[in-house]
Structure prediction request, 439 residues.
Amino acid sequence: MSRKKTSPAKILSNCGKCGLCLSVCPVYQTLKEEQASPRARLQLIKAFENNTLEASPLLKDIISKCLMCGSCAVACPSGINHYERFMEMRQKMVEDLGESPAIKGLIYLLSKEFRLRAGTRMAALGQRITPEFIAGKYKLGNIPVNRFPTLNSLPVRKRIHSRVPPAPGSPPGKGSLVYFTGCATNYMFEDTGKAVIGILTSLGYEVIVPEAQTCCAVPLLFHGAAGRAADNIRTNIRAISRSPFDRVIVDCTTCGAALKDEYPGFIARAMANDHRTKSGWEELAEAANVISEKTTDILSFLGEHDLVFNTSPNRGPRHLGRAVYHAPCHSRNSFGTHAGVQDLLRRLPNLEYIPTAGEADCCGGGGTFFYEHPGTAGKMMDKKQAGIRAAKPDVWLTDCPVCRINLAGSLDEKDRIKVSHPVVPVYEALNREAGGIKS
Ligand code: SF4
Ligand code: SF4
Prediction:
């Protein structure tokens, strides 16, 4: 489900204050304060634009206390695109008050691939040499440092060839897919990267993994750093378009939302009115539209295939036990994946999928929300945890890397719950001898 497109003027005048967005907003539902609601944020933006309200740390805090989950835009009967409006307002807050010190370093790293590579290398070294009892004393948000995932010893994109051929014996003539790995898979979750490439090649696709790709730019856009985001967007459009492809596959729906919705919107805004990012977009606008049309998340893509799983009693995949699922906000709101993922999990022979009542409730991760607003994020996670612990799972699956970090960080050793991406058990369960697909 793509986000609605509405003109900025319409956005502010259209709010009928009906309150439907309040019922779906995880921040409002947690805090129960009007100023934490999508409706109130729109009114504050309106007052700011009418010059009756000045930029201030309090205003910036209220605008930033939003997960950018998009649930309000989906629920709004007036067709308001809150998402785009909040992003523009965050940019104005940065212009007037500067970047928030808490996330300045992250933005600096994410805006250049070589910095991110160097930063993750240093962090990996830090993880190796820091004793567990020291790392456990410090927290990022609510997450103890020793509960962060172990960084990949080598980035996924360095481990594999930039063109991976279809697996031997797989169905012929399936075409070429670009795999946009995102930063998290590249530097943190190599199990996801291996599974995505393994699944796609066993289905018969050639997988192109552009070496020059970089951060999708969503973290930069969400923090109002549009000028820095422009470079990342240009780099990715060029990297993806370098050779012909049939589809672009993402394993993170936030990256997917960037390629699908943010890039064309950003380019249109830059060409129309942003003097700092205006030049050079004409040649990329068409390529951005092609990428937007062809971008699909891996789980929706698998839903287009008739997968064959290995159900052999003797040589079947290892059973993973009871599994619960956390449906990330962007997967639900930008790609509408929830029901499809549930169907896929029910069909897997190597786990017992247990649906839980709060499965689609936000976990409070929200990019850097868990770090910037730990009090609110902690309340969301407590609610989430109550439903999960009752199900007594062995595995907690989710298809968003930030949610994965947040969920894993909320658990401890004695919980004995492994957190993973759904593609991992799917890859383990595929009958690779049959090419994983009915011919
Ligand atoms: S749902 Fe839309 S129209 Fe209703 S209060 Fe929220 S923003 Fe306004
Ligand atoms: S994007 Fe999500 S968290 Fe932000 S106001 Fe809308 S519903 Fe609330």
User: Anything to note?
Assistant: The chain is about 50% helix and 10% strand. Confidence is low (pLDDT under 50) at residues 1-6. The radius of gyration is 21 Å.
